[in-house]
Amino acid sequence: MNILIIGSGGREHTLAWKIAQSAKCDKLYVIPGNPGISEIAECVSGISVNDNNKIIDFAKLNNISLVVIGPEAPLVNGLVDDLKAAGIKAFGPTKAAAQIEGSKIFAKNLMKKYNIPTAKYEIFDNADKAREYIKSEGAPIVIKADGLAAGKGVIVAMNLDEALSAIDEIMEQKSFGEAGSKIVNEDFMDGEEASLLAFTDGKTIVPMIPSQDHKRVNDGDEGLNTGGMGAYAPAPVMNKDIVKLAEDKILKPVIKAMANENCTYQGCLYAGLMIVNGEPKVVEFNARFGDPETQVVLPLLNSDLVDIMLACIDGTLDLQKVEWSDECAVCIVLASGGYPKSYGKGYEIDGLSKSKSLGNLIFHAGTKNVDGKIVTDGGRVLGVVAKAGDIKSAVDKAYKGVEVIHFDNMHFRRDIAYRALKFNK
After folding, report:
1. What are the respective helix, strand and coil percentages of the chain, to the nearest 5?
2. Contact, 29 vs 4, CB < 8 A?
3. How many domains does the chain have?
4. Considering the domain boundaries, does residue 228 fall inside one?
5. Do 270 and 335 belong together in one domain?
6. What pTM was estimated for this model as a whole?
7. Which of 51, 297, 363, 423 can pair with 383 through a Cys bridge, CB separation 3.0 to 4.6 Å?
8. pLDDT of 118-156, one tens digit each?
9. Tell me: the pLDDT tens digits for 345-370?
């Protein structure tokens, strides 16, 4: 079958790498893709990921049997609905179901209604009232823009000044545009964060291997929040008992709740969880594979990803066998110096083939091909991924892969998986 992936980052490169291994995949296209993806699929330029009509025209012209949507914006824009209306199978939630990520308010209200464990919260569309609430509640406190903000619309304020300036930034200065016209102020949850992704057909839930990413830009979880500076799986903080609790108290109830609300959820559901005294609570839901979590979870999947995706679409996930490796995987993100604020582009990247020869996977995130040379073209540039029998061996292997790669102003964290290494001592 001919398969089309939508997106251009490290997550989409990982999806392409895994889908290309499927016996069912005859020809793989990616809109728009990136230089790393172009080694395993045909990249298609000139079509926006947000242009539903052009994507459908391309899919019809190229006999596409399955479309896999990577980023959140096309899901919230209703691409799955439009593809289905055109008779083309699509992996991902509908526009109504994608609200679980597209609106923090929708997600929080849903959790409240169905008693799904999450932090206490209040909703505001008025900056003065939001400030009054913060002054009465105190800090630390978490301020979230309601809409999509490319993974950056959450500010964890550790003191009152930070919290009040977050209100200014989101609601007055509109740093996240219309996404911040309404906000959620919620209690700070003190615990350890982990990500649990799951496949679902709207009835059956199959959790993936739990992972943990590193949101802050600098070592020791210091500095600004980013889209993720690295990840590892499995996350020891989420043992089998906690995964079972998350499945029973969060994943199954939320899928049931979505069906009750007439927005049946099919695809990949991402639950960002805080483990507080051995109990998982929801930080956020995402309507797609996480980035960089996908880069460590999918390399541990032994089953055919295309079979699983088709089962999610067809409602037959309960009949599908999903098997995982016993190995560990670690991803180290190589970023442009200055990210997540302003950074330079166009720096030549050296050492990619050398890193691969050490047994690493290299997933491109923000790269460009200029006259046959791979150069930087984004904040997060590459993900260096290693698999091994234990976390420490995977960490060592990944960092050896990082050591041989170079570009100007390259920045990366040197403590990826430090929590897991402490845990396993």
Report:
1. 35, 30, 35
2. yes
3. 4
4. yes
5. no
6. 0.96
7. 363
8. 999 999 998 899 999 999 988 999 999 998 877 678 888
9. 999 999 999 999 999 999 999 999 99
